[in-house]
Amino acid sequence: MRLRLRVWRQRSSEGAGRLVNYEVEGVEGGMSFLEMLDLLNLDLATKREAPVAFDHDCREGICGACSLVINGVPHGPRTATTACQLYMRHFRDGQEIVVEPWRAAAFPIIRDLIVDRGALDRVLQAGGYVSVNAGSAPDANTLPVAHQLAERAFLAASCIGCGACVAACPNASAMLFVAAKLGQLNALPQGQPERTHRAIAMVEAMDAEGFGNCGNHYECVAVCPKSIPRDFIARLNREFFRAAMIAHEFASPPPSGELEE
Ligand code: SF4
Ligand code: FES
Questions:
Q1: For a pocket test of ligand 1, which of 162, 173, 184, 230 has the largest count of ligand atoms closer than 8 A to its C-beta?
Q2: Which residues line ligand 2 (CB under 6 A)?
Q3: Which ligand is the nearest neighbour of the Cα of 107?
């Protein structure tokens, strides 16, 4: 199979980038999208041209590094599929494919297709932890967790922090990501001590990093490779509202006379 690629090339975060045309030959249906890019880079290296820089690590849909917008869609045309798990059999011989980086103010381009997704890490650092000493795995049933809650926490935990939700959103909102992380920890007993702090700290960190708000477009849900459902966002809003009410209650002076004998 021969493909016509239009790839975003940009030397650094400074300066302009542009789409550059390439042809790749010998692409096989069993190759992943990243292996197809490897083929392109082999050809570029042979011609002593700079290879296309792109992010990847596990190539198994686990790490969330492979941040590619393929023909306008983060992670490409297949639902619930990361770019590294997207196979070339889903493309046609002679097809033109446009490959771009995530586009969001909070994700500055480092080079070519690589963006800095450190903003997601900083949002996590604000509240994506538990302070209790969880130790090693407890014996089954020593800490009772309802089956539905365990399943829900597990679903939320499947978020790989790829940022495709941000890249797809017209507002560059990170709410699906934050909702998944908060939804996981706030659902479990171990996460309760920080529940209120977590909701406020992570939402404040999200805003400070320059992510937008949710406008109910649900493009995030459409591209999420782990199929995180949209009701997590509603849960995030409820958790934030609850936390804001509690914070307000503790910040308010007691009604006059309440502390007087
Ligand atoms: S919610 Fe989905 S799209 Fe967003 S970071 Fe997590 S896995 Fe990626
Ligand atoms: S390279 Fe790890 S999820 Fe794609």
A1: 162
A2: 56-59, 61-66, 82, 84
A3: 1
SS3 at position 46 = helix
Q: What's the rounded mean pLDDT across residues 53-81? A: 98
51-62 confidence digits (pLDDT tens): 999 999 999 999
Q: What is the distance in A from the centroid of ligand 2 to the CA of 61?
A: 5
**163, 60, 34, 17: CA torsion to nearest 10:** 20
Whether residue 174 is predicted with pLDDT greater than 50 in this model: the reply is yes
Distance CA 180, CA 182 (A): 6
Cα–Cα distance for residue pair 197/188, rounded to 1 Å: 15
168 vs 179: CA distance, rounded Å: 16
DSSP string, 85-150: G-BGGGS-TT-EEEEE----TTS-EEETTEE--HHHHHHHHHH----S---SPPPTTSS---HHHH
Q: Cβ(34) to ligand 1 under 6 A?
A: no
Q: Which residue has the tokens 């400070």?
A: 208
Cα-Cα-Cα-Cα torsion 66, 77, 12, 177, nearest 10 degrees, comes to -60
CA separation for the pair 13, 244 (Å, rounded): 37
